[in-house]
Amino acid sequence: MTLVENCNVPGYTHSVDAKKYAAMKKALLKILPKGPPGITQQEMFATVPRYLPEDDFPGGAKAEWWAKTVQLDLEAKGIVDRDTKSKPLRWYRVR
C-alpha cells in the first residue's frame, strides 16, 4: 500500500494499492505534456488506458478513478499542475 494526498483537501491522505498506483503514475507521466496548455480530464481518461498493464486494469477497469486519484496526488506533490484559466481545466507536468 502507498499513501496518496489530495490537493483539494490539504492534510487528507488515504492508502491505495502500490502496484496500481505505480502503473498509473507511469502512464500519466507518459501522456501529460511538459508545460501548458496540457490536456483535459476527458483526454486524460481517453488516453491513459492504452498505457496500463492489462493484468492490473483488465479492459481499462477503474482506470478513470485511478487516473483522478493519482493526478490529484501528483498535483499535491507539485509534480503536476492545472491551468485554472482554461475551460475545461487542463493538466500538465511541472517536473
Principal-axes shape call: globular
- Helix/strand-derived class? alpha+beta
Task: Quote the average pLDDT.
Answer: 96
What would you report as the Rg, rounded to the nearest angstrom?
13 Å
- Biggest sheet, strands in spatial order? 3-5-4
Q: Determine the number of helices (DSSP H or I, runs of at least 4 residues).
A: 3
Instruction: Please give the alpha-carbon distance between the first and last residues.
Output: 24 Å
Strands, count: 5
Describe this structure in words.
With about 100 residues, this protein is α+β, with helices and mostly antiparallel strands. It is about 35% helix and about 20% strand. It has 3 helices and 5 strands, in the order ββαβααββ. It has helices at about 20-30, 40-45, 65-75; strands at about 1-5, 15, 40, 80-85, 90-95. Strands 3-5-4 form a 3-stranded antiparallel β-sheet. It has a two-stranded antiparallel sheet with strand order 1-2. β1 (about 1-5) and β2 form a beta hairpin. The model has no long low-confidence stretch (mean pLDDT about 95).
